[in-house]
Design brief:
Blueprint: E1 4-9, H1 29-44, E2 50-58, E3 67-74, E4 79-86, E5 89-98
Antiparallel strand pairs: 1-3, 2-5, 3-4, 4-5
Amino acid sequence: MTPHTSTFRIPVTHPALPGHFPGRPVVPGAITLSEVVAAWRTYAGSSRQVLGFANVKFLSPLLPEETARIAFIDRGTEVVGFEIAVDARRVATGALRCEHG
């Protein structure tokens, strides 16, 4: 099955960045995962609710203003795999647990 992809960019002005980390801001994992959920909802529609995450691994930091690409592999089950990358650098991998729709 062909993966669905989406991109996002967190601006340096995002309110979560000043304390995470002073002098070298890094996008918090919770913000990154909220982008995954938002992209999934745009792709799958409201009929497939996200129930949680499984096997999430953060592999490298996501910096403000970087354009990240999310690739989803939806196999029509309750688990949808995803990978986040900036160019060839993998940022995170994991899976969404969703209601089957």
